[in-house]
Amino acid sequence: MTHDSRFPVKIRYEYKQDDKTSLQYAHGVWGGINPHGEIEMNFYSESDKIPEWSERVVMQDGALGHEMVPAESDSKTVVRHIHSKVLINYDTARAIYDWLDEKLSALEMEEDQQVMYSAGKGGLEQ
Q: Which superkingdom (predicted)?
């Protein structure tokens, strides 16, 4: 089969990282389809809410006593800090879906073939 000379034989992709690139851990994602038909994903990490303030008692001798925070309520507050927003179109979403499916399948195969570590002993259990 002869190659059509109107098209290149191959395409090379080179990857360059932006200086501002950083690793982000995500506990989840919130989002949906925006008015333009794109998928908007807001990746977040979760943590307990930090109190708005705390106080320490100062003893008569100047030593610091215990720390006090506002009284707890009946409910617990968890803060979802959105650290990354990603906007993708349908074709990109489909490509990511396929890529994730491939990676999840590889992880599942690794779990099935996993070499177990023995508790209390160093090294691998064979």
A: Bacteria
